[in-house]
Amino acid sequence: MKHSIKLIIILFLIVSTSVMFAQEQADNYSKLYKSLPFKMEVIKAPKFPNRDFNIKKYNAVGDGLTLNTSAFNKAIEECSRGGGGRVIVPAGIWLTGPIFFKDNVNLYLEQGALIQFTNNYDDYPLIEGFWEGYTQFRCTSPIMGKNLKNIAITGKGTIDGAGQYWRPVKKSKLTESEWKNLVKSGGAVDKEGETWWPSKEAMEALEVLPAVMAKKELLTKEKAEKYKLFFRPVLLSFVNCRNVLLDGVTFQNSPAWNLHPLFCENLIITNLMVRNPWYAQNGDGIDIESCKNTLLYNCKFDVGDDGICIKSGRDKEGRQIGKPTENLIVSSCIVYHGHGGFTVGSEMSGGVRNVKVDNCNFNGTDVGLRFKSQRGRGGIVENIWISNIYMKDIPAEAISFNLFYSGVSALEEKSADGKAKIEKTYPVTEETPIFRNIYMDNIICSRARDAVVLRGLPEMPLENINLKNISISSQKGISISDAEKINITNAKILTSDPAIKIKQGSNITISNFTVDEKNKTVLSIEGEGSNKIIFIGGSKYSNKIKLSDEVAKDALKFE
Question: Which of 17, 142, 397, 427 is the most exposed place for a label (fewest CB within 10 A)?
Answer without folding.
Answer: 427
